[in-house]
Write a structure and sequence with these properties.
By secondary structure, the chain is of the alpha+beta class. It is built from four helices and ten strands. This is Lipoprotein.
């Protein structure tokens, strides 16, 4: 008789776990459903990670001795309606300590940005840190989400998401987070 209850409990857990939201989605109140179709899988030059990106987005790859990047944006929309995402794996150790946070604050101040929120958390089941800052770039209001993910003792990922203008800022960040969550690490 225990078997049917066990099956029911397993089914409930499975269904509920499929609908869970990440800490980042929760942080940005991403409660609306965002879905993409026609995604194309892009690999960075060194094959360290893959990212699924809408086919109509413009995507560029970059690498040098210390980093490998995928930079993408929906160029079919105006700058104030689009989102820019830059995913870079960097060969350098990182620790999210007080010195790191001070460095982020100093860098934001130098760029005339005001940090709206920041904290350490877990992303991709790894130690991570994010900060959200706001300022001006040219004539536009500018928001930037910096996400740092420690992949191992020698490498980290820096994901920079930029939003220009005041139109649907939260929605654009949530759409970007959905794409960021599709990143696959190959290490």
């Amino acid at each position: 008789m225990k078997s049917p209850y066990f099956l029911l409990l397993s089914l409930v857990i499975t269904v509920c776990s499929c609908n869970t939201t990440s800490d980042l989605q929760t942080e940005f109140n991403c409660n609306h459903k965002t879905s993409y179709s026609n995604l194309k899988k892009h690999a960075d030059v060194r094959g360290l990670f893959n990212m699924k990106i809408p086919k109509h987005w413009k995507t560029k790859l970059y690498y040098d001795n210390t980093q490998s990047s995928i930079y993408t944006a929906d160029t079919t929309k105006s700058l104030t309606k689009s989102t820019l995402i830059d995913v870079t794996i960097i060969h350098n150790p990182i620790n999210f300590d007080v010195d790191f946070q001070k460095k982020m604050e100093k860098q934001s101040k130098a760029e005339q940005l005001h940090i709206l929120k920041s904290r350490s958390f877990s992303f991709f089941k790894r130690v991570s840190y994010f900060n959200l800052a706001k300022g001006k770039r040219g004539k536009y209001t500018y928001h930037i989400l910096n996400l740092f993910i420690k992949t191992n003792s020698d490498n980290f990922i820096h994901i920079k998401t930029e939003v220009y203008g005041d139109s649907l800022v939260d929605k654009r960040f949530c759409e970007a987070i959905k794409l960021i969550e599709l990143i696959e690490l190959n290490q």
